[in-house]
Amino acid sequence: MNFRSHLLAISLLTLSLTASAFEQVKPEITDLGITPKSYLLVGNSFTFYSSGLHNIVNGLARAANTPFKRNRMATIGAADLGWHNVWEYVRPSGMAATYVDHKDGGKIKRFDFTKEKVFDVVVLQDNSTGPVNPQRKDTFEKYVKQHSYDLNCFGIKPMVMMTWAHKGKPQMLEGLSNETTRVANEAKAMVIPVGLAFASAEKAKPELELYRADKFHPSPEGTYLEGCVTYATMFHKSPVGLKYYGVEKIDPKTAEFLQQVAWDTVCSYFGWTK
Questions:
Q1: How confident is the model over 146-194, as pLDDT tens digits?
Q2: What architecture is domain 25-61+70-162+176-198+217-270?
Q3: Which sign, positive or negative, has the C-alpha torsion 60, 215, 180, 263?
């Protein structure tokens, strides 16, 4: 058995163990139905740590020759989705309508959104305990539904990130998985199952550190896995074998392992054929 086959066998086994630990709510939206050309990430420190989730997604997309025109990241430290005015972010005359043209002396210019949508996809990432914290879960549900409704009105595809259990608290995963999926289903949004991928990677390689010292923010490896799951879900493409290892570069063999875990996770969660 070669190295890649060995990795595949391990990750499939560990994903199966993770999935069988509780009865998962099944996602109703299993494909965006488009190949996105632009996206916006809305979140907090879980999105901007390790030089930013957007850089991982962009790097993987470029390595795969997957073309896209534009991306943005709107993050506020410690924020839940109630802090973000997503309607203002995405309306054609709103905050995202301007950009800096570095090829023209840094001039501020405006996009012509009479010809295209502001974004094809918006990823919504709530506080890490939002779906399971009794003081936060109502806010999580309210704003996932409100933002998703607004985005769907603009013809923009909403996606909701399933965050991960804090280190040493695997019992968080069941609530994070099921509540995120349930609310996203009701909001007509697609889930990005990062939390399930974290659990699978930890079971397969407990020595691999996906967390920073605070035990919940992602390490460079954690952000890389987050990016692989986001890329795989958003583009319905495998990240396995892509030669991009992050801004805060991680070991290539570790990257290959995380790519495989990400792909196994999304295929199992959505019922995709590999």
A1: 999 999 999 999 999 999 999 999 999 999 999 999 999 999 999 999 9
A2: 3-Layer(aba) Sandwich (3.40)
A3: positive
